[in-house]
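Retry 2 of 3 after timeout on previous attempt. Resubmitting structure tokens to design endpoint.
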């Protein structure tokens, strides 16, 4: 009997990491029903981080909350409560920006000047109200470039314009903000705040939040330059270094959280630590990972590369499943690769029914495993 670990990331805009792991496992079981299957969905700080913790941590609970989304309307969201560890006295709250202030919530109707992170801050406040002593904040998939002012406002800070009025939400407010009043800002929890992101960008400059991610959120060329200047002014109000890695994550939300006392960490690595991925890999005979699009950038901080690296250290063969595998992608670390577009025939077909094609990919890999020589 073979022990198979399925540890994919989410297939962005298509299926969650938990859904992908379940579909892959179902396909494998349809061919090799006697194998032992372990599902450990991965995340890198973006969409699916909550599901990764729910799947991996015994006793984790989803806590419903209603927040203001990036479109200004109410959103039904949740955060995850992790029980106290054996060597700790307090509980941990995991809050995900993607499900509270994420770009997917806009449904394609981008709001580059007005979207903000207030809902994310409201969910953080709910976790603090519950009494958590530590926060783990996943800040991928942001819809806004608001320097995290929405988060700080929801936590009690006041951002003021030159006329002494509350600054408007979103980038509009960042462009006019001249004062940050922290007197009402809630303190960070006793055991600290860890911020997880797959983005290590600085706040400003050619590699910063506005230049790299602004166009994805609807900013034009001139607006990108204006946003970059506004973020530089925001950094002065926040008291953060614009060159620090991770401060540009989530439209500058990394900078705001850094000013709140948080520690900024590479998302995939920390998620792996927190869910015990290394031990799960070492206990497996075969490892399967994946993501929506595997390309030349996937080797830098993305979940599949991290999974493959841990498997290599443990001398475990690793297979990759992706919606699409780019011609320039380095797949040398995998014993097998499967692209859903190849199985489905077209990208549209793969996106229309990802569960079906992930299950088919699981079956393909199981048949290959059956034909492989004994290890």
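Retry 2 succeeded. Sequence:
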């Amino acid at each position: 009997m073979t022990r198979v670990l399925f540890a994919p990331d989410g297939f962005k805009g298509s299926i969650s990491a938990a859904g992908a792991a379940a579909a892959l496992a179902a396909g494998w079981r349809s061919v090799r029903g006697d194998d032992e299957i372990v599902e450990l969905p991965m995340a890198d700080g973006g969409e699916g981080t909550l599901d990764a913790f729910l799947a991996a941590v015994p006793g984790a609970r989803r806590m419903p909350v209603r927040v203001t989304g990036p479109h200004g309307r109410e959103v039904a969201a949740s955060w995850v409560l992790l029980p106290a560890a054996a060597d700790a006295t307090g509980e941990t709250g995991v809050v995900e920006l993607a499900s509270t202030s994420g770009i997917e919530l806009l449904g394609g109707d981008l709001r580059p000047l007005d979207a903000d992170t207030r809902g994310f801050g409201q969910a953080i406040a709910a976790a603090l109200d519950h009494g958590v002593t530590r926060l783990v904040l996943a800040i991928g998939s942001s819809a806004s470039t608001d320097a995290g002012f929405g988060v700080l406002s929801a936590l009690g800070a006041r951002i003021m314009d030159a006329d002494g009025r509350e600054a408007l939400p979103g980038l509009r407010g960042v462009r006019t903000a001249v004062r940050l009043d922290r007197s009402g800002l809630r303190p960070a929890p006793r055991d600290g705040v860890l911020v997880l992101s797959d983005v290590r960008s600085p706040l400003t400059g050619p590699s910063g939040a506005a230049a790299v991610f602004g166009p994805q959120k609807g900013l034009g060329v001139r607006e990108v330059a204006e946003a970059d200047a506004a973020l530089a002014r925001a950094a002065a109000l926040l008291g953060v270094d614009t060159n620090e890695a991770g401060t540009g994550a989530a439209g500058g939300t990394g900078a705001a959280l850094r000013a709140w006392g948080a520690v900024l960490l590479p998302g995939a690595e920390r998620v792996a630590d927190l869910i015990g991925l290394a031990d799960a890999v070492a206990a497996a005979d075969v490892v399967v990972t994946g993501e929506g699009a595997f390309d030349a950038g996937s080797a830098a901080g993305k979940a599949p590369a991290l999974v493959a690296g841990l498997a290599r250290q443990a001398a475990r063969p690793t297979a990759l499943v992706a919606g699409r595998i780019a011609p320039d992608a380095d797949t040398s670390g995998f014993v097998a690769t499967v692209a859903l577009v190849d199985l489905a025939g077209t990208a549209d077909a793969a996106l229309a029914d990802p569960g079906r094609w992930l299950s088919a990919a699981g079956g393909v890999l199981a048949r290959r495993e059956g034909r492989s020589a004994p290890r």
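Attempt log closed. The chain has 15 helices and 13 strands.
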